[in-house]
Description:
- The protein is an alpha+beta fold and 157 residues long.
- It contains 5 helices and 5 strands, in the order βββααβααβα.
- Helix 2 (64-73) packs across helix 4 and helix 3 crosses helix 4 (96-104).
Amino acid sequence: MTQTPFGLLRIEQGQSLVLSWDTKHECHGHQDQNLHQPLVEAIQGWCEGKFVDISLWLPTGQDFTSRVLQTCALIPWGEIRTYGQVADAAESPRAIRAVGQAMRRNPLPLLIPCHRVVSASGIGGYSGQDQDGPQLVRKRAILAFEQDVTQSSASSI
């Protein structure tokens, strides 16, 4: 696990590397700290407002979920896109609801920035939660943090 300003992120290595805000349940995957160190460093860098190269962990397939996550990875800090815009960019313009399902399967929340994707009518969901609750509070906090970092960077130029 690694601490962020938004709570603990659990790192689990099973068939693939997964980050989860869910720290209540036992990890069932491999817990090799050396294996996780690059990911921990990436998370720490992100929390410091630094550019983090996530290409090592980004899905490379051409299936819909991979295309959606690849599209999310391109959304710049401090910016948001709607589910519809992501569907368009992923070359599936009518798959707006499916974008939300793909986001729910994001193995690397925070680093693959699904928090930057919102509903056309509001904040949308986050980490499988679509009603007000701790995950949406976290999403708002992450977006506010990114706005602050972006504005601080712009004002220091």
